[in-house]
Structures are given as C-alpha cells and as structure tokens.
User: What shape does this take?
Amino acid sequence: MEIHFCEGDTDSMYWAASGSPTESPDQLLTYVVKDKEFYDQNVGYFMPRSDIVDKLERKRDEKKPLGVAFEKASDNMVCITAKCYTAWNNSGKVEALKVKDVSKNQNIHITHESYLEVLNSGNVLKGTNYSLRTMSSQDEKVMSKTETHKTALSPIHIKMQTHPNGSCHPYLKFKSTVIKTPQILDLNVSNLSSNLLS
Assistant: This one.
C-alpha cells in the first residue's frame, strides 16, 4: 500500500492513497497504515480525532496548528500544475475543479474530462473571462464589456522543469560570470585555504 503527493499549495495538499476499489473514498488511510496500534496512539496529534461527537469541538480539533483537516475525498484526481487540478468520483460527481487565471462560472466548457484530454492530446484549452469596466471621459461615464482570452489548461508547466519520472523542480536562474583568464583560477583546496588564511 502506498501514498503519493499529488498537488500542493500554500495551505493545502492533495494526496493519493492506495486502498480498496470496492469501498468509498472515505476509507482515507485505512489500507496504508501498517502499525495500527502506533497509528491509533498518535493520529490525534496530526489529524482530526474520530471520537469527538460535538460539532464545534470537532471543528476546533480539525483546525489545530500543523494539523490535517480532510476537506474532500474522491476516487480520481488529475493535477496539471499548481492550482490547476480536478477530482471526481467513479459516479461522475466532481469534488474539485480548480482552474488558474480563468473563471469557472464563465467557462462551463471546462469539465473534469478536459484535464485528461489536455494531458493525452497535448493540446491547449482556451478560456475567456468577461468583465464590465467603467471609463470616464470628461463629463461622461461609459460602461464597456471587456473580453480577455487566456490559456485555461495546458500540458506545459511554465514555472517548473518536469523530469521524465513526473517529478518537478523550479527553474533555477544563476548569474553567469565569464572568466577570461582561467589560469588565475586555482582550485587546489590546500592552496585555496592557505590563500584565504594569509
């Protein structure tokens, strides 16, 4: 049994935990835990305790510092980039649909199937945002409707470098320095330390 990190943000994380395909997603970590006794003794420090009945006390327990609060559980998840993911159940009920830079309400053509289509085809899915703007010109105010076209879903991760195994790391920018006279560069550690000490 395994657990994998799928997607994360400043204040949230999405994990995939292996389990029984015949049970609902509410099984959480049941099939991942190897030492049940240790888990039962320590789970209350990090995750909501299941023995609390009072709603207010349960909510308070969920919000403890460095604690984990379960917000959603689903059967399937596709994460394209940070803040761009979808999760749905086998019944088709969408639990989460997050799109970056475009409004979900104004782009109803974006569904949980769109994420898979983008990944499998390599194509980009466009979105459109509409807004009303008022402009003043001398004594007259004019309201106009603006339309902004953006990339809603893309298989390309523009802020990270993706490796063949699916892991990512941020692009690193280094200041390059050109050394025109390489003979002055002495990389002998004993000479370097004696030069620094003198």
